Amino acid sequence: MDVGCLAPWTSLSLDPRGEVRVCCQNQWLRLGNVAESSLAEIWNGPELARLRARLRDGDFRLGCDECRIPIERGHPGTAFLHNYDHLVPAPGAEPPWPVQLELALSNTCNLQCVMCNGELSSAIRSQREHRPAMVSPYGAAFFEELEEFLLRIESVNFMGGEPFLARESLAVMERLVDLGLRPQVSVTTNGTIWNDRIAELVALLGMEVAVSVDGRSDAVLERVRVGIDPTSFRANVERLRSAATAGGGRLRLLFSLLRANWMELGAVLQWGDDLDVDVGLNRVEHPLQHSLVHGPLDELERAVRGLEADPVHQRLGRNRNVWERNLADLVALLDERRSGGTTVVAVPVPARRAPVDEGSFRARVDADPNQVVISVTATGSAPPGLDLDRVVGESLWRLVDVLTGGLGDLVRSDMQQPGDGTGERHGFTFDAGGTCYELTAEVDADRDGSSCWRLELVEVEPDPGAHPT
Questions:
Q1: Quick one: which of 130, 154, 291, 464 has the fewest CB in 10 Å?
Q2: Hey, how many other C-beta atoms are within 10 angstroms of the C-beta on 20?
Q3: 173: Cβ–Cβ under 8 A, 6 or more apart, which residues?
Q4: For 357-374, b where at least 16 C-beta lie within 10 A, e where not — what string?
């Protein structure tokens, strides 16, 4: 299939609130929620059909900016879409079933990683953000329907929270065993949970176990993955590798590149070589106070010099390509930052249409260093259905859900990534049944992690060519 990304034809991604999207990177195109629609209705629904139509034309501006940007910068190999290259859609122009499920069914987690938040960690939610526990949307009806999908999928990816602690994720794993199914099963885990039940599930399902390893030394592990016991963690890595291998699966290590741990990238890659396993690398971009790539320029320069001088790359074997590829990407990014811009392929951007009237709705949404919204101030009249006061006391992540749920169908997205000391800038067009809105969202992020979103919403004349059938 000759399309920009296979995800819309192959995969569904579910989060702890029951929101369903095509993948974890496209947050702005909401396909539905399991509390409102069945999985079958969502898979065969209009939003996914619209995204497929766009991607057939090579148009990534329906929430897929996280992949559009590296492609336009000339680094297509780093785009997240390649995580779906190996999947083959079910037969038919509009496949009747996905072949992969990405299940982040709970935020249950025992760690408080510095770059994480309460939407994905119950420990952070209760102890750092001091918010009430999240109520699970996944009830008996959902699991009954999910079984129909489990019978047809080829792979299922469990994420979290911590899947080996979450009752919802464990229930799905055990149902796969009970049904005698053996799809490709992958689990992203923090590596802190080990017991006989986990050992049995890992072996019976032949899991690919991806362990988040964000440091090699005790000091860095404890600094980044707050609440971890480094000694038992390392022992669990060995146990998980043995259990996965016994079942025909494998172990991988995952490294999140941060301002606090870049100096141990080589040591983690060496650890992967010693274990004879692959290491995957994720460059953290949010929140800004922990991002190396979008942090202070002098710190990025120091990191690049330090990595270039690290002799470990001369000893690397299996994971040497990870070192070389990501160092080259960091050098290219540093050059872009030094030049004050980015090398981006010119893509025509439609001019902003004239507003229906001179009025507009403006709002300021302030969040604290935990990225929890503390206040909303607004001027002008908000459109019906857009209640920003709902996000006060919630994670900033919820702001996206409220905006996309209250403004109609997403017609177009345009994101610019953070720069030197700046946050993102988003531009969107929404169609609410014939009423068309243009939304500008500028994000100012301070170094302490607090954020301010400045929103401007203008009603504009509908553009017949902008809304796909």
A1: 464
A2: 22
A3: 158, 185, 201, 205
A4: eeebbebebbbeebbbbe
Instruction: Say how far apart CA 193 and CA 233 lie, in whole Å.
Output: 8
Cis peptide before 383 (omega within 30 of 0): no
Evaluate whether 98 touches 84 at the Cβ level (below 8 Å): no
Share of the chain above pLDDT 70, in %: 91
What amino acid occupies position 379?
T
Could you tell me the pTM of the whole model? 0.89
- pLDDT one-digit tens code per residue, 447-463: 566 778 899 999 988 76
Torsion angle (degrees, nearest 10) of CA 176, 181, 186, 190: 30
Structure tokens given for 330: 């960091």
The rounded distance, in Å, linking the Cα atoms of 322 and 269 is 8
What gap in Å lies between CA 323 and CA 417, rounded to an integer?
24
Write out the two tokens for 453. 């979103």
Q: What is the dihedral of CA 302, 307, 310, 313, to 10 degrees?
A: -170
Q: Is the N-terminal amide bond of 161 cis, ω within 30° of 0?
A: yes
Beta-carbon contacts of 391 under 8 Å, excluding residues fewer than 6 positions away, are 365, 373, 376, 398, 399, 402
296 contacts: CB under 8 Å, gap ≥ 6: 420, 421
Counting Cα atoms < 13 Å in the Cβ hemisphere of 201 gives 22
Segment 132-135 long-range contacts (CB within 8 Å, at least 24 positions apart)? 134/16, 134/17, 134/107
In whole angstroms, what is the distance from residue 24 CA to residue 165 CA? Answer: 21
Q: Is the pLDDT of residue 76 over 90?
A: no
pLDDT tens for each residue of 161-177: 999 999 999 999 999 99
